[in-house]
Design brief:
- The structure is a single chain.
- By secondary structure, this protein is of the alpha/beta class.
- The protein folds into two domains: 1-81 and 167-249, Rossmann fold, CATH 3.40.50; 93-164, no CATH class.
- 35% of the residues lie in helices and 25% in strands.
- The chain contains nine helices and ten strands.
- A six-stranded mixed β-sheet has the order 6-7-8-3-9-10, with helices on both faces. A four-stranded antiparallel β-sheet has the order 2-1-4-5, with helices on one face.
Length: 249
């Protein structure tokens, strides 16, 4: 088993009198898709927001590559190698698919001293963008307007944009939401291809997809972890069945 790239220890977040995440400890390892499941309001998105640095925890700690990053800002974590996607599409629809990726690559490879060079001609950023599009299966549509892609294509582009920042960890918040069967298959194939070089956290409501792709599943209820194990063990866990999956799953 590889060492954990990103881990949380007793991570907690309170909003006034509401505890949205309560003492969550988990580990993300390269070569694994670690799914986090739970009903709406279980604390999954709040957990991702803390791991990515978008909100500060009320308690607990976060480690990345052996360093305590609990107090690091979101931009600093992103530059260090923690990438994420969102529930809602966050592309630039008026730009081409390639330009969307190039902008993300440029953010990770700033060249403030190159005043004489147009940003869109930066060879380094373009090379990274093309590499990310190829990894996400979008090389053939690089010059298309991003807004013309299908819903599934836009979700693939979001992951390509994330890959353009050269992350070591991918935090993916419901990447399969709203997809049809064919688009879901493409996304699952993409996730399977990415895990060999990345640690992947997947928040998802599609249980069939989760049990197909995940190497480990953590189940949250009311902000707490009630189980964290291999998919087969989670499927047969009576507490999980009662709280979330349903007795007949």
């Amino acid at each position: 088993m590889t060492e954990a790239l990103l881990s949380s220890n007793l991570l907690t977040r309170r909003f006034g009198g509401l505890t949205a995440v309560d003492g969550v400890s988990l580990e993300l390892r390269r070569g694994e898709v670690h799914a986090v499941i739970g009903t709406n309001g279980a604390g999954k998105s709040t957990l991702i927001n803390m791991l990515s640095g978008e909100i500060a925890p009320s308690g607990g700690s976060i480690e990345f590559a052996g360093r305590d990053v609990t107090d690091w800002s979101q931009p600093k974590r992103a530059r260090a190698g923690i990438g994420r996607s969102y529930q809602r599409t966050t592309i630039f629809p008026e730009f081409t698919v390639l330009e969307n990726c190039r902008l993300c690559a440029q953010a990770a490879l700033p060249r403030a001293w190159a005043l004489w060079e147009a940003a869109q001609r930066c060879a380094a950023s373009l090379a990274v963008a093309h590499e990310a599009l190829a990894a996400a299966g979008l090389a053939d549509v690089a010059q298309r307007g991003a807004g013309t892609l299908s819903h599934g294509g836009k979700r693939q582009l979001e992951i390509a944009m994330c890959l353009a920042t050269k992350p070591r960890v991918l935090l993916l918040d419901e990447p399969l939401a709203g997809m049809g069967a064919e688009e879901t298959e493409r996304m699952l194939a993409l996730l399977a291809s990415l895990k060999s070089e990345h640690a992947v956290l997947l928040v998802e409501h599609d249980m069939d997809a989760v049990f197909r792709i995940a190497d480990r599943i953590t189940v949250m209820v009311n902000g707490e972890v009630i189980a964290s194990d291999a998919p087969a063990a989670i499927r047969s866990n009576h507490e999980v069945q009662t709280a979330y999956l349903g007795e007949s799953h």
